[in-house]
Amino acid sequence: MTTTEISSLLQEHRRFDPPGPFAARAHVKSEAEYRAMAARAEADPDAFWAEQARALAWSHPWTKVCDWDPPDARWFVGGKLNVAVNCLDRHLGGARANQAAILFEGEPGDVRVLTYRMLHREVCRFANALLSLGVRAGDFVAIYLPMVPEAAIAMLACARIGAPHTVVFGGFSAEALADRLKDSRARVVITADGGWRRGQVVPLKASVDRALGMPDVDSVQHVVVVRRTNNEISMRPGRDHFWDDLVAAASPVHEARGHDSEHPLFSLYTSGTTGKPKGILHTTGGYLVGAAYTTRMVFDLRDGDVFWCTADIGWVTGHSYVVYGPLASGATILMYEGAPNQPGPDRFWEMVARWGVTILYTAPTAIRAFMRWGDEWPAKHDLSSLRLLGSVGEPINPEAWMWYRKVIGGDRCPIVDTWWQTETGSIMISPLPGATSTKPGSATRPLPGIAADVVRKDGTPCGPDEGGFLVVRRPWPSMLRTIFGDHERYVKTYFSEIAGCYFAGDGARKDADGYFWIMGRVDDVINVSGHRLSTMEVESALVSHPKVAEAAVVGRPDDLKGQAIVAFVTPRSGAAAGDALAAELRAHVAEQIGALARPEEIRFAEALPKTRSGKIMRRLLREVASGAQTRGDTTTLEDQAVLEKLAQSFATDE
Ligand code: 7RM
């Protein structure tokens, strides 16, 4: 955020109270109720979390709520439960059995509806199919699928048999997939022939084939292929199987057993400050307690809701609020495969009206795109089914917040701006829609049970409006347990910066009302359209190109994406800087990581500015990238004089 943006946030005084009719029916109905609940959680966290955990079905009771041996936590110790049973079997007893669990719409407009009973059968069949491939509890399974029902079915089937999944976003490249397969040592990959995106086929199976041919990708024994786009693919006999064939041969009956509360449920890779993405590991009991509790509280779920979280299952938001949280709560979810502007900019609004969506949860970057496309698109559709709106992934600017409230929510729906992370597993800071009065741009206050705070480097609390580090003082059930295969990095990244606290990597301030204003990352992580990327990751991709000698990547503020990637590149001698090389490098990054990491702008420089100790001066480059911006021209050769001058002005404090 720029200084002007921060000062405009400091002047944000608008407040919106929960609408009366909404509050009257809500789970938490008033500020007083919120305060009482938060105080109860604060006074006896174990009792509070035990109460939340009792909302789930356990096959064996826990003996201890939380075993906290900083920085290692175990939750509901000794307890056993099955996540798929909680999301499915538990709902089959009464009327919910025939209620829709998944409403699916593909990008081309094809529709499928699965009731809880149908979803349960599909999950049992696929669980048996995985067993028939030799998958056992503890084996990792990679999922590389478009947003189709099979994605949720595969996740739940893995959970059912205790095989942790690692979902890889379908927009990631073969190289990125290979890295994740190597690190997780997945035995099976579940993919599709392709997925639909803006009318084009995303050739997923071809990427899997390439990934499996890369050095050291040697753990995968089977590939399961969902037929989706019917494009031509190659199938290797013995290794590759069609989903349909496996499932046709599998029984729809599967007796699930409870898994230990601390049994790994999934790992999900996310960017940190180094080039190598880290596998964030979540476990069974605590994660599901967190996902279910927050879904109920933050989205105020009730019977009849149609919940649409627009995130892809490749991100943690898709894990917690497309699949696990809503299904554990017996909700009806809407799942959409494609782009928000295919075939037109009103695709979302047309779907909200047609499916009768009551809760919409999306990202600021999408909201800003809708704003730009114009009010006429939502205006064409009846959005009166909506009763609650949510935002996640990056700070939402007050202007977008106000637009969302007025144009989409008809000034009637509360907005929940939810702050959380892959690492936290579930929402941490958010309004309770029936209780919290909201301020545009603020995620408001921590949920009951969450001990979030803003502190100085020495761990002492910041005063009102004093910027500091966002931390969490006490463990919470859905916290990550480790970075897969690198516990030392877990300790160092999250529990070493600020003594005695979990450090989130974000800067924030609390205002005089105790409301949190998240200011963004304080590390080298950038947030592009709500997607986390590390500058190092993009730099490693750039320097792996033969024509690049050195590269430095920074984020610059972007009206639409939040941040845009700007790369400063020094070409190797003999390589000509220019549009052709820039295009080649952008394509190279897309191939190495995925299209979302493709730099918006590449600037060539004869040399990069460095400190005496040889560190690239990123802070300086950030200034250059956001200041001396030449629109449309992506390949400016940096003026060395400008860099040197700036370098001098920074040299003292970098
Ligand atoms: C859920 C998710 C996490 C990072 C986090 C923040 C930023 C997320 C908000 C937000 C301001 C929000 N997981 N972030 N939500 N910043 N307000 N409501 O996004 O692991 O992919 O990213 O995203 O910087 O640290 S994530």
Strand fraction equals 15-25%
Instruction: List bound small molecules.
Output: 5'-O-(acetylsulfamoyl)adenosine
- The tally of strands reads 30
What is the SS-derived class? alpha/beta
| Uncertain residue segments | 629-635
- The DSSP helix count reads 21
User: If you compute it from the alpha carbons, what radius of gyration comes out, rounded to the nearest whole angstrom?
Assistant: 24 Å
Identify the strand order in the major beta sheet. Answer: 5-4-17-16-18-19-20
Tell me about the biggest sheet? 7 strands, mixed
The outline comes out as: globular
Distance between the termini: 20 Å
Helical residue percent band: 25-40%
**Mean pLDDT across all residues, rounded?**
93
What does this structure look like?
The protein has 654 residues and is of the alpha/beta class. 32% of the residues lie in helices and 22% in strands. The protein has 21 helices and 30 strands. The strands form nine sheets. A seven-stranded mixed sheet has the order 5-4-17-16-18-19-20, with helices on both faces. Helix 6 packs across helix 7 (149-161), helix 11 (284-298) packs across helix 12 and helix 20 crosses helix 21 (640-651). The chain starts with a helix and ends with a helix. Mean pLDDT is 93; it is low at 629-635. The structure holds 5'-O-(acetylsulfamoyl)adenosine (7RM). 5'-O-(acetylsulfamoyl)adenosine binds next to helix 12, strand 20, strand 24 and strand 25.
